[in-house]
Amino acid sequence: MLRRFSVAFLVAVLIAGCATSPTGRTQLMLVSESQAIAASRQAYLQEMDKYKREGKLVTDPAVLNRVRMITERLVAQAVQMRPDSRNWQWTVEVIDDPKNVNAWCMAGGRMAIYTGLLMKIDPTDDELAQVMGHEIAHALANHTAERMSTAMATQVGVIAAGVLSDKPAQTMAMAAVAAQLAVNLPNSRSQESEADRIGIELAARAGFNPHAAVTLWQKMAAYGGGKNPPQFLSTHPSDAARQQALAALVNKMMPYYQAPGPRPTFPVRVGAAAV
d(Cα 241, Cα 244) in Å, to the nearest integer? Predict the structure, then answer.
């Protein structure tokens, strides 16, 4: 009887927890975006506090100003695409880890990029904008909450605890752990394709050449051809089909890139993880 109830409960929760992404894709949402943002904030501050104690947060003004210039133009476009994201606490940190070729963006606009990506890939500003635009797209499409929901859905007991618990602190602690895992676990193919599509448009509207989306992944694939592929490739699988899909989008994005006039910016906290 209990097992039958558990199955029925799971089905009911899964049906109730459906949402639609910006591209029209059906998403499993057992965790609300507000929960994901709160959990991500907690996880982000814990991670950055650890890096700060280890002396691994980059303070070089030249590096931070470059990252600021690029992300503030991208975030301005993100806010135009999703006006409610204006209220997010947009933040980016550069982490001194030469061996880690990676970048990410949590729910609520909390971002990080590793020096390994800057050093090993040596991206142009246009290419770096593609990286960060892609990561920002994951946040805009609510992929953090979706990935947390997918992880929770693999265990009926965890779902029951999260949905039925009358202890919000316990539920949020579980969500914070899921948010931390979301930084390292791979996105699905559909999420990656979605982030590619949204990210290249964000970058083009911000005034970054869409052709750089193709050259970036060519660089990534070339670097990943060694014995130890970068972390970015393990969580963002690159292949010929993906490069072709991005190349097919370039001409559609060019009018955004070539649009006249200055590109707006939106304030982003850079080197201020403790805020």
Answer: 5
